[in-house]
Design goal:
Layout (H helix, E strand, L loop, with lengths): L1 H17 L1 H10 L5 E6 L6 H4 L7 E6 L13 H11 L5 E7 L3 H6 L9 H7 L3 H10 L5 H20 L3 H8 L4 E8 L4 E6 L4 E4 L19 H7 L1
Parallel strand pairs: 1-2, 1-3, 3-4
Antiparallel strand pairs: 4-5, 5-6
């Protein structure tokens, strides 16, 4: 703890003065983050560090297992964060970010491991889709690969949950929002992105187009809307 306190003093003496103009602008004009990232609470995954963000660049929501519960009427921290980010901050890009060696995903492979933690067990049930997909579609995957498969499929599952949130569904329907699925490989120091066209995770590369899970594209189910617009 003393080490952390020392860094607070360093922030006050060095970091803040060196970025005083930026902090002054943010304090005066408010925040206009470029994206919302929903990531795991794991201490090894720091969203701002991954994207080399400056203060004000990224709106962040962290929790065990980078989970987005399906929309429901009861209040919740993730639901409220998503709603505020979209409807107040006007965010048009949301990233769900998983990672390798995830303790939450490991727990899902060990029945009974969360019996003494009822709240954790209830929370991780939001990842049950990923477990079922891997159980049925990856029958021969074991060990570390089993955990990795669940972690990747969990990103897909949480993106699907995200689309049940009214603010997100509305923005997607209007073609005003893109959804991204990322996976940080801690061991390789690499970030993978979900390509919605192929359904696969591919490395993010500087010389390649950014893989997008759900690109901004208007989707209106009622034909008469289009006809009326014409």
């Amino acid at each position: 703890m003393n080490e952390l306190i020392g860094r607070v003093f360093s922030f006050e003496k060095s970091t803040f003065p060196n970025k005083s103009a930026l902090y002054g602008k943010l304090a005066t004009h408010g925040q206009f983050p470029k994206a919302l990232m929903i990531s795991c609470a794991d201490s090894r995954i720091v969203p701002e560090h991954i994207v080399q963000a400056e203060p004000g660049d990224l709106f962040v929501c962290r929790n065990a297992g980078n989970i987005v519960p399906p929309y429901a009427t009861q209040n919740g921290g993730v639901t409220s964060t998503v709603e505020y980010a979209v409807m107040v901050l006007g965010i048009r890009d949301i990233i769900v970010c998983g990672h390798s060696d995830c303790g939450a995903m490991k727990a899902l492979t060990k029945p009974g491991s969360t019996d003494s933690m009822p709240n954790v067990a209830a929370w991780l049930r939001h990842a049950s889709t990923a477990v079922k997909v891997v159980e049925d579609a990856y029958p021969n995957v074991q060990g570390d690969d089993h955990v990795r498969a669940i972690s990747l499929e969990n990103v897909v599952a949480q993106l699907n949950h995200l689309k049940t949130h009214p603010s997100v569904a509305s923005s997607v329907a209007r073609g005003e929002m893109s959804l991204h699925g990322w996976f940080v490989d801690i061991h390789a120091g690499q970030v993978l992105g979900l390509d919605g066209a192929t359904g696969r995770f591919v490395p993010l590369r500087e010389d390649q187009p950014l893989p997008v899970a759900h690109a901004a594209s208007q989707r209106l189910a009622a034909d008469f809307i289009a006809e009326a617009a014409e």
